Amino acid sequence: xxxxxxxxFPYVHKQLNHWKKLAEAIPNTELQTQALASIQQKTFxxxxxxxxxxxxxxxxxxxxxxxxxxQTISDYLDNLCDRSTSMDPKDFRMLHxxxxxxxxxxxxxTNYYLYREDNNDGGYLHSLVLTCQEVLRASPxxxxxxxxxxxxxxxxxxxxVHKHVREEERIPRLKKWFEHYQExxxxxxxxxxxxxxxxxxxxxCLVSYALSGEMTEExxxxxxxxxxxxxxxxxxxxxxxxxxxxxxxEGDLNFCSYYDHEQLMKxxxxxxxxxTNLSIKKLPHSAFHEMIHxxxxxxxxxxxxxxAISQAKGFVKALLRASGKKATFFYYNTKMYNKLKSLHx
Length: 345
What we know:
- This protein has helices at about 1-25, 30-40, 45-50, 60-85, 90-105, 125-135, 145-165, 165-180, 190-195, 200-210, 215-240, 245-250, 260-280, 285-300, 310-325, 325-345.
- By secondary structure, it is mainly α.
- Helix 7 packs across helix 8, helix 7 packs parallel to helix 11 (about 215-240) and helix 9 (about 190-195) packs across helix 11 (about 215-240).
- The mean pLDDT is about 95.
């Protein structure tokens, strides 16, 4: 944690400041607004993702460069799809093609704004994609992880397309999409599967291992199997849990709302905690992945938004109990960090 706070987080913020300056120069007002909002409101996504750079060893700075750029694309596009007037799945698919290109250094860039009126970003999205490609192109070991990273990326892109269309089309599309995976994910509900597809953690893990020089095709498959579905699912379910009130106000889709009742949601979250714990034990550096697992629980439950959620006190206690002492450490550690950051700002 000393390394994370003293080295990783400051470098994450340095990278974010670089992208913030480029975002401020975006000519189109709507695109500029969404780009800046995605950085200002979702900094903690990059902070959390940045921890994976520790796996890259001496190449941790390059890992941070990739993680911040890739996550910034994700957050920016999420804002564009959530907050824009477009409801066109072709538009969403085209926008998210940038994330596929970011994972495939040999791909040529294209006009990702082809199907939308607001399109002059001054090269902002292209710069983000090129940064990702540049980092991956310089890693001779990434080829061994490329197929696995692209597979997780495709799942993410599919989710973003289906969940941002017209409100009456969302659930039918998501349920139909889940049918293709239902046999191998029979232990999940459609909305839980959707949550599992919505995380970027598996990609960060794969890229960081590739930059360390330790990547093999076997490790790539192992990471993918360990992170999808449970670790990624836990990540996004927690993200949706703390955003319940905000999503209700904005009319955004929130997968937590599909649980029949609070008790069932609590039980399923505990199930995801336990399954994540089992799946990451199969990985090398299992103590590191356990830290991420416990850190996710502590980080999200310590968020200020939790205070506004009904019955949150019992929910937090149950998850911390299931996650153990390390999660409780991260919970109080994050609360203190947020308090100090608030005082500093």
